[in-house]
Amino acid sequence: MPTHPIRADHAPPGGRRRRGAPALAVALLLGPTVTAASGPAEAHGIGLAAGPAPIAAHAAARAARPTLAPLPAEVDAGTRVRLRGTAPARAVVVVQQRRGGAWSPLTKARSGKTGAWRASAVFTGGGTTQVRAVVGRRAGAVRSLAVYQWLDLATQPGYTSAATARDVPVPIGSRTYPHSILAWFSPAPVVWFRLDGACTTLTSTVGLDARERARADGTETFGTKAIGYRADGSESGDSGYLTGGWDQPREVRLTGLTTATRLSVLTVLSDPDDDGLSTVLGSPRVRCSAAGLAPFRAEDLP
Questions:
Q1: How do the domains of the chain map onto residue ranges?
Q2: For 150-300, CATH number?
Q3: CA distances (Å), 125 to each of 70, 76, 153, in order?
Q4: In the chain, which end has fewer C-beta atoms inside a 10 angstrom radius, N or C?
Q5: Are 92 and 122 a contacting pair, CB within 8 Å?
């Protein structure tokens, strides 16, 4: 009786047929056990499970504090300033400002995939302003800049040696100057202000009150001079002595006041007939990094 070889995928005579599982299929289904040291597995494209190092790096990137690039040392109120810095990728960055109180939102930005962000903002009001970038509850380092604004001296507390009308419109020649200071009853009134080192520049038009010309003989003249004083009494700036007449108003401009703690503006009236005329500081203004000037007291006189 002839014998027949038994095939792997056939059952013997009288038995149930079985289908074998190829070894390759079994290997693919089960897969090899791969450890971090299994170099050949990586060569065959078998991925490894993420270890703690990448997770920690990602968490550190998300927890990084935002940064704000250095700001200009000073700006004028109303000027738009460009802001930039870094933060975690695709994060909402809130730029905050503070001026002697609580932090408040200034503007917002969103960082890109590299973490860089850009924005711009307008600073208003005078004074030293602190700025920082915030992502979530994490705040970056604080930057500072001085914001300057022009203050009307007629609305600021000052001290004078003569009777004055303050913050009134007064004509000099053919032009009316709002927020002016009118001085009378003295041949040489002086107006004093406290600057406390927060200001840089004074500007004013000085002349004679055009409303009084009808009772004047036309020979009247005036002189004016502005001086800044340091805390030790030395001068930090002098406009020089300027003279003029009815049709000769003078523009006073005094710079270099950054170290001045006090400012004086002198006007001298020459009126031979003693007609009781007035001198005018037309729209005097001072550029300061402050919301306003402190009151000037008699003990502040040099």
A1: 61-141, 150-300
A2: 2.60.120.1060
A3: 21, 9, 16
A4: N
A5: no
Instruction: Give me the pLDDT at residue 161, please.
Output: 74
Q: Are the C-beta atoms of residues 218 and 191 closer than 8 Å to each other?
A: no
- Round to whole Å and give the CA distance between 53 and 60: 11
Q: How many whole angstroms separate alpha carbon 301 and alpha carbon 194?
A: 10
Give the whole-angstrom CA distance, residue 194 versus residue 183. 19
Amino acid at 250: R
Spatial CB neighbours of 201, under 8 Å, sequence gap ≥ 6? 253, 254, 255, 257, 286, 287
Q: How many CB atoms lie within 10 A of CB 197?
A: 16
Mean pLDDT of 231-251: 92
- d(Cα 76, Cα 97) in Å, to the nearest integer? 16
User: Rounded to an integer, what distance in angstroms lies between the CA atom of residue 77 and that of residue 146?
Assistant: 10
What span, in angstroms and rounded, lies between the C-alpha atoms of 248 and 271? 16
Structure tokens at 211: 């409303």
How is domain 61-141 classified at the CATH fold level? Immunoglobulin-like (2.60.40)
Strand-strand pairing, 127-135 and 92-98: antiparallel
Task: Return d(Cα 285, Cα 293) in angstroms, integer.
Answer: 12
- Positive or negative: CA dihedral 98, 101, 104, 110: positive
What span, in angstroms and rounded, lies between the C-alpha atoms of 269 and 208?
Answer: 9
Query: What pLDDT, in 10s, does the model give residues 137-151?
Result: 999 999 999 999 999
